[in-house]
Amino acid sequence: MTAHTTVPPAESGESGESGDEQELKALYEQFGAAHMIPLWTQIDDLMPHRPTPRAVPYRWKWSELYPLAQRSGDLVPVGRGGERRAIALANPGLGGMPFATPTLWAAIQYLGPHEVAPEHRHTQNAFRFILEGEGVWTVVNGDPVAMRRGDFLLTPGWNFHGHQNVTNGPMACLDGLDIPMAHQNDTGFFEFGPDELTDTSTPERSRAERLWAHPGLQPVALLGRRPSSPIAAYRWEHTDRALTEQLALEDEGHPGTVEAGHAAVRFTNPTTGGDALPTIRADFHRLRGGTVTAAHQEVGSSVWQVFTGRGTAMIGGVEHGVEQGDVFVVPSWALFELRAEEQLDLFRFSDAPVFEALHQYRRASGTGVGA
After folding, report:
1. How far apart, in whole angstroms, are the C-alpha atoms of residue 82 and residue 315?
2. Strand partners, 296
């Protein structure tokens, strides 16, 4: 932030300054000494006419990310202290901070064959979206949860969690957390768990799924609102089926898609009907080949990962070709649209729940966008 404290040009006086100018200069010096800053020197920065994000649109190519993650698997052990082999994606506009946006942390986590990541817990809400690998289980509060390609898995804040790979192959996933918000607001806590995983079994379905992952049904014994979804894993087969049915219904002339050729689902908390995590919105999008979405802007930032397919992301007037595994950032109020060269499946997460709760969320599409 730049302080605009320039004193007007000199008009008179031995020092080249008028009496009023000398008094004003002295006043500014007194403000500085007292650690005070007058609003009139800052208003353009503090209250701009529209969002002026420091984060910039950026795309990370999977063809570069994955080899680097593999190499870190050869050189960097996973164990107590380092805890996770997670490589943060640092937005070039944020001055070297390990954040994808001012509110969202995104990383590629890599777990090698037969590796175990020890248990810990933290204030920050977290999830994993699985892009590569099978045969890995995350243990959340003692409940083993299978991790498979296309699955969206939750680790709500202050839940103990660790991971084990029981196969001869690696696993790579996108980790998303609200670390920047906790960091900026001084609200974070962290605690080590036991050195050994509390449960090393490998069930097909977690206990959380057996209780909660039944459409429209909740266990009567556990009714009540929860801040985060109790569903441990949102399985790819359900996501895929829902998207397929939306497009099929569109073909039959029935409503259900966001716009022509664009199906989307949101991962929700069955106890509230709201977002699966209190600070993070997650959804999944499928575009038919040839579809171009409506250009739009929204308050708050988002991170996208291409699951399958190829297309173009237009962000702030800059075109980014994207394909399987690529990750890209859409900053707050950046003009954004997607174009699908072939069927394009994308996972997305954003900070929208925070700004909706603060009554600061805004979205514009159609006529007038780009202003």
Report:
1. 35
2. 336, 365
Separation of alpha carbons 153 and 142, rounded Å: 15
> How far, CA to CA in Å, does 286 sit from each of 75, 122, 292?
37, 33, 12
| 306 sits in which H/E element | strand 302-308
CB 338 within 8 A of CB 59: no
In angstroms, the CA 95 to CA 97 distance is 6
> What is the per-residue pLDDT across 72-130, written as a single tens digit (0 to 9) for each?
999 999 988 778 999 999 999 999 999 999 999 999 999 999 999 999 999 999 999 99
CB < 8 Å & 24+ apart, contacts of 18-22: none
Cα dihedral sign, 297-298-303-304 = negative
**DSSP, residue by residue, 181-231:** HHHHHT---EEE--SS-S-----SS-HHHHHH-BTTB--GGG-S--SS-S-
Beta strands in 124-169 (DSSP E): 126-132, 136-140, 143-147, 152-155, 161-165
**Cα–Cα distance list, 128 to 133, 152, 174 (Å):** 13, 6, 6
Residue 58's SS3 state is: strand
Q: Position of tokens 């209190």? A: 278
Three-state DSSP state, 25: helix
pTM (2 decimals)?
0.91
Taking the C-alpha atoms of residue 337 and residue 319, their distance in angstroms, rounded to an integer, is: 10
245, amino acid identity = E
